[in-house]
Write a structure and sequence with these properties.
The protein is an alpha+beta fold and 402 residues long. The chain has one domain: Cytochrome P450 (Cytochrome p450), CATH 1.10.630. 49% of the residues lie in helices and 10% in strands. It contains 17 helices and twelve strands. The chain has a five-stranded mixed β-sheet with strand order 1-2-10-7-3, sandwiched between helices. The longest helix is centred in the middle third of the chain and has 32 residues. The N terminus is likely disordered.
């Protein structure tokens, strides 16, 4: 193994937990891609891959870059229930095939009218005020309500569902009280879902939990813990990432009002614009993997058992993959990006996130097309987890709608 010290660049320090990275990680990513593409952090003991080609190669080699020991540097899941995102084959493949039987394109398409109704209801509540804190009022609320709709949560239970989910998603390692509240909310949320699962076993409906209960391949079905694990993953990943996708898109279009005007005039540009938001300011910045063997890369050897941070956010700004990668351009041709992953762990909810974002921006552009950020964008408080990126709060001002 080549000496790590020989390749160490003292001027390069990547600390994913730092305030600098929370506010703007992209200059650090650029330095990593240029100077230290197989970065090793001696203080925290992790590696990081920042170039598009290296990230996609790792994602397509799940035997070497394994997920089963945790997909965060800390290696600790938020729940003990099995989640396919943190599994390796063969069990991952078996469970994913079962879940995919329930989480189909038909399931997603059928919920489109409900998503639009929820989006309009949320916007109606603030459109005439001329200002709003968008995360709480819309970008966080919409995905949670959509997931509740998918899971078959009754309308009168939505407020409590959202309250519990907000506590789970609001956990901050620097705030012990938030961890305690989030843990209690997690248990309460899982018990609510368990109750729905038991109801659907007796009286199936046309919802996702009923489909999960019924899904079978070669006589095998998901057990209750596996159903709860998938529902919990859907609540966390499905709401957290879509929340940030919508909020990051609002920020990007506020910074590029001429492109926002194009979208308001021609909604057929929206699907590509959403892909550009996903590439340019990814709501999912990174995931971790653990190596099962030594890996030779860029003249260095990543040892067996090493934690490797896969930097999706950096890959999206790699000039070797995208011309003028640092520029935001809703008309850019995008053949591929890695925000939803690649390979066996490609996000099952990608089509749902895209549909939610499409409807969210159609309705925002229809009702409040001239929004501005009511703060200095660089000073906005950001969500704390290093794996994701988005504003914790997003104050907007706009011309009041009728």
């Amino acid at each position: 193994m080549k000496s790590i010290d020989r390749w160490h660049h003292p001027q390069v320090r990547f600390d994913p937990y730092s305030e600098q990275c929370r506010r703007d990680p992209y200059p650090v990513y650029q330095t990593l891609r240029d100077r230290d593409p197989a970065y090793f952090d001696e203080e925290r003991g992790f590696w990081a891959l920042s170039r598009f080609a290296d990230v996609v190669t790792a994602l397509h080699d799940p035997e070497t870059f394994r997920s089963g020991e945790g997909i965060v540097l800390e290696g600790q899941p938020r729940t003990s229930y099995p989640m396919i995102i943190a599994m390796d084959p063969p069990r991952h493949s078996q469970l994913r095939a079962l879940v995919a039987r329930a989480f189909t394109a038909r399931t997603i398409a059928a919920i489109g009218p409900a998503i639009r109704g929820l989006a309009r209801e949320l916007i109606d509540a603030f459109a005439s005020a001329g200002r709003v804190e968008l995360v709480e009022a819309f970008s966080s609320a919409l995905p949670l309500l959509v997931i509740a709709e998918l899971l078959g949560v009754e309308r009168e239970g939505l407020a409590e569902f959202r309250r519990l989910a907000d506590l789970v998603l609001g956990q901050d390692p620097a705030d012990p009280s938030s961890l305690e509240a989030g843990g209690a909310a997690s248990l309460a949320l899982l018990e609510r879902i368990r109750g729905i699962v038991n109801q659907r076993r007796d009286s199936p409906r046309d919802d996702l939990i009923s489909a999960l209960v019924a899904a079978a391949i070669d006589g095998e079905r998901l057990d209750e813990e596996e159903i709860l694990g998938f529902c919990y993953l859907l609540i966390l990943a499905g709401s957290e990432t879509t929340t940030n996708l919508i909020a990051n898109g609002v920020l990007a279009l506020a910074a590029h009002p001429e492109q926002r005007s194009e979208l308001a005039a021609d909604s057929t540009l929206l699907p590509n614009a959403i892909e550009e938001v996903l590439r340019w300011d990814s709501p999912v910045q990174s995931q971790a993997r653990t190596t099962s063997r030594p890996v030779e890369i860029h003249g260095r050897t990543i040892p067996t058992g090493a934690k490797v941070l896969i930097l999706f956010g950096s890959a999206g700004r790699d000039d070797h993959e995208y011309a003028h990668a640092g520029q935001f351009d809703i008309r850019r041709r995008i053949d591929r990006h890695l925000t939803f992953g690649h390979g066996i762990h490609f996000c099952l909810g990608a089509s749902l996130a895209r549909l939610e974002a499409q409807i969210a921006f159609e309705e925002l552009l229809r009702r409040i097309p001239d929004w501005r950020i009511d703060a200095e964008p660089r000073e906005l408080e950001r969500v704390r987890p290093y794996m994701v990126r988005g504003p914790a709060r997003l104050p907007l001002v706009f011309t009041p709608a009728d």
